[in-house]
Amino acid sequence: MNPAESTDTAAAGDDLTQRVLRIIAETQRKDPSQVTINSSFEELGIDSMDGVNIVFALENEFNVNVPDEEVKNIRSVRDMVEGVRRLVEQGNAGQSSAAPATS
Amino acid sequence: MRRVVVTGIGVICAAGRSREEFLQSLRLGRTGITRIEGAEIFDLRFRCGGEVKSFVATDHMTPKAADMIDRFAQFALVAAQQAVAHSGIEFTPALRDSAAIVTGSCVGGQTTENTGFYDVYKLGRTRVHPMTIPKTMANAGASAISLEYGITGPSFTISTACSSSAHAIGQAFIMIRSGMCDFAIGGGSEAPFSYGILKAWEAMRVVSPTVCRPFSRDRNGMVLGEGAAMLTVELLEHALARGARPIAEIVGFGMSADAHHITQPSAEGASKALRMALKDAGIGPEQVGYVNAHGTGTTVNDATETKALHLAFGAHAPKLAISSTKAMHGHTLGAAGAIESTAAILALTNDFVPPTINFSERDPECDLDYVPNCARPASFEYALSNSFAFGGLNAVLAFRRI
What we know:
heterodimer; A: mainly alpha; 60% helix; disordered N terminus; disordered C terminus; B: alpha/beta; ten-stranded mixed sheet; two-stranded antiparallel sheet; 14 helices; 19% strand
């Protein structure tokens, strides 16, 4: 990992972002330096089946469930990072709040 | 030129357990898709499937015979029994010696396999049922038919995912046309309803959480189905000599490979199979009246298939009646080509076009005539059945009215 790669946004350097980038690189068999927060799927040669495979790996890594509808709308690495962040935050909120509110 | 005809039809699926019931469903636009009952669905994101409800194998075979084969092979045998009865064929020693059997299946007896693996992996048992291997093998349907009738001619199974049974019927057609044999049973069967397989389909994110709406703008995926269809395929002279009445003629078979992507379809590959079927049949695009589409109800398939139809049919494409009957029986995978060929033949011989049900809204990417929601009276000479498989292997069959 080379945090210096992601200089464009403050968020790009955080741990969650780095984990998402690493998983995308691993599942796509790419050098981690090729995958940045600003990479589009087109640039990385990621098609819809690749997208489904990446989401599977992210679901396992972060212990979240990504709905089918959300997967259809993901177009870029940034979409993936933001989507995972949202789900992780929702998941954390769900765990910390009292049961009746969420179940 | 050796002409090849269909003399018997057998079908069992969610939209009908016999030729007559299936014909009724096709005419009425009646769906057999309901909440899945035959498998645990626990946490699955989809709840519906095209099941053959209340199927009792022992209504069709001895308890001992039923125990020896998986549900997918039971369906194959039941469809073959129907087709053989419909054809009126009598198996003489000479016919048994020469007749062929070609079946298609995508996943084989995976329910049986899952059960065995569950026993050892999950339950920690030390033994798996001894019939697990022969019940799981994809050729179990062909073998069951061979045993039923004592057929000892060329018999085998083709597995090309969702094109399996279209390739199987096409192979039976080619074998008869080439002079290898005069009579064959061709078709396919599938029984994919068990939790492990359903989870695998869920993971692909191509199954609709609600309803299968082929070619409709709001389509959101396919719905799985189970069942079988078998045709008795026969040399025209052979059928006439025994006083049989041919139902329809098989006139063309087109095959191609996309060489494009393991799951994404290609309009070029599909249109090539369509063109080859027309060429093999020796007919022009304008002679075709009906196409039973692959029409899975996924965003990508239906748009790509539409593009393929435009490429193959040109100016005639908008005049075609096109429908996907999958919204009535589900995507039956290895049985799809055979069940949908049966739908095409029943349409051809009963002067109507089955509808694409659940159609709610036109999609600019699907701009042809999909016969939305209601069957339509129509008389035409040629009908096609499209099958386009994962892995990019395509098969198109062409049928002619007799």
